[in-house]
Design a protein that fits this description.
Layout (H helix, E strand, L loop, with lengths): L2 E3 L9 H9 L2 E7 L10 H20 L4 E6 L9 H8 L2 H4 L5 E8 L5 H17 L2 E5 L6 H14 L8 E4 L6 H6 L3 E5 L8 H11 L4 E4 L11 H11 L4 H16 L8
Parallel strand pairs: 1-2, 2-3, 3-4, 4-5, 5-6, 6-7, 7-8
Helix pairs in contact: 2-3, 3-5, 8-9
The structure holds zinc ion.
Zinc ion binds next to loops.
Length: 266
């Protein structure tokens, strides 16, 4: 079955991973701007990273007939330095018109600090002014429920933000309802052992349904698996879910969300 991985950090992945994903029928991916394996000291380091996301990675993916999209921001992990973050946010508009850019992300909180919240709101301001889609990172480190609550409050306090144009990612059993009840899209990140395993994700789908929900592998610098979405497909098949329902989760839903993007071309 063809699938989309809407959240995978290919900067941390080898070309062999692209090949394996292609063999597993990966149709398209989106790569949110995040940590690049080390803390960058200057805004120009992020400028180079944005060039990689909008130019290098799409070309690398195209070798395997995988469509590559991306999101731009300074991630919460490196956003503690507000002045650096402002310099990076100022670079984003130059890249928003690149054809593979879907919006602003993954923005959010890491340790739920006041500086992270300031930088988060300045990203929201940029997204509102430019009418971009938003991809949200909810914290793994500190209290996920508290961080998700803080993020949703900030989103709802900004009346310019339309929930249907926001995806709240890394939801788990205790945060999925917050996102869905607010009218947001949500993403579940499938990790081999920590966070949400494929089996837990299918439990969540069975409990909360398949509207406005998608799954991804993260494929990041930690232990992660770029074939996690095919693994979820296998688990859904094993439990007797129909091909139509599975396709909705792993293909139709991310596409429906992305189609709202300003740069979208069918
Ligand atoms: Zn990520």
């Amino acid at each position: 079955m063809q699938f989309i991985d809407p959240h995978i950090h290919m900067i941390s992945r080898t070309t062999d991973d692209y090949q394996r994903m292609a063999y597993a029928q990966c149709y398209a991916i989106s790569e949110p701007a995040f940590w690049a394996g080390f803390d960058r000291g200057t805004a120009s380091g992020f400028h180079d990273y944005f060039r990689s996301l909008t130019d290098t990675e799409p070309k690398r993916a195209a070798q395997f007939h995988i469509k590559h999209y991306c999101w731009l921001c300074i991630n919460a992990k490196e956003a503690e330095n507000v002045s650096l973050a402002r310099d990076v946010i100022a670079l984003i508009p130059e890249f928003l018109k690149k054809p593979n850019v879907l919006g602003v992300g993954e923005i959010g909180l890491n340790k739920n600090t006041p500086n992270e919240a300031i930088v988060f709101q300045e990203h929201l301001d940029l997204a509102a002014k430019t009418n971009e889609l938003i991809l949200i990172h909810t914290p793994h480190l500190e209290d996920k429920y508290k961080g998700t609550r803080m993020i949703i409050d900030m989103l709802q306090n900004d009346k310019r933000i339309t929930p249907q144009r926001v995806c709240v990612d890394h939801v788990e059993e205790h945060t999925v309802k917050l996102a869905l009840d607010g009218g947001f899209w949500c993403g579940m990140t499938l990790y081999p052992t920590t966070k949400c395993t494929p089996a837990r994700a299918v439990d969540i789908l069975e409990r909360y349904g398949t509207d406005r929900i998608m799954v991804n592998s993260a494929g990041d610098w930690g232990k992660s698996d770029p074939l996690a979405v095919p693994e979820l497909i296998q688990e859904m098949k094993r439990r007797g879910h129909s091909a139509e329902v599975i396709k909705k989760v792993v293909f139709d839903n991310p596409l429906e969300f992305w189609r709202q993007s300003n740069n979208w071309k069918e």
